Fold VOC domain-containing protein.
Amino acid sequence: MLQQTDRLALAVTDVDEAARSLNNIFDSVVVDDTKDKEANARRVTLQWGCDQLELLEPKGPGPVADFINSGKRGIFAGGFTLKDPASVAARIENAGIKVTQQGDRFVVYPEDLRGTGVILSPIASREQRIGLMDKIWQITYTVPDLDAGVAFYSDLFGIEEEMTNLYSSELWGYHAAITWFEARKGAPLDSLEYLDPYENDKAAGRFLAKTNGIGGIYMATVHTPDLPEIKRRIEATGGGWEGTPNGALGFIHPRRTFGLLLGVTYFDNINARRPTPEEPEAWNH
């Protein structure tokens, strides 16, 4: 049922500082500044390429304050769009998980869903691009058991019939799966990734350990033709960029993006090796 990965929400202690810093890196712009009554937080929304980045600063007790006070930083929730968000919200509620409605969108706070906050919104146009970003193409969860994690979220989100490929990374020490919302060459890359770390001393393993083995949203990845300029800006203003030898993928350290571990790549780099029903083994990590 999910169709697009359209936004991220970050929990921050100073929303003005975060907005300034992120806008300086990505040329994103503030498009909304409001009080989120349900979360008891100030919510500043950046237009971040074709998608959006929400920054949440707690204004008192509530789920954002709880997230920060527990020692966490970074991705509070990952957002998906679909034609009928109420239908998936109902599935989640039927599973005994609390859902909060905010106008035409639905929010699940991370404390209620294994550390994985969710925002469900109506499908929207993604044609207007602001700044250096293009689109969020993947949101990545860590899970303590890969098969169980994929089964749980696939049922919860109604994506059991979508194509899911399995792979392992010896470099990063995890077993993984990717569920593609539209599995065909040239289609949008929107997808949900799951990591089940088997080496606890590597990054994903350390993240899972910090959640006491529950899991959470580990990172997100975007695609943009302006990767070289983003890399230049990160390196020119304090560092925090780690790239692959071929230059087609880089990672921005969370200290530069207020707890967000962000992968940056090119559309063609992923599209060329995305699996499809015709080429199910195309993904070569």
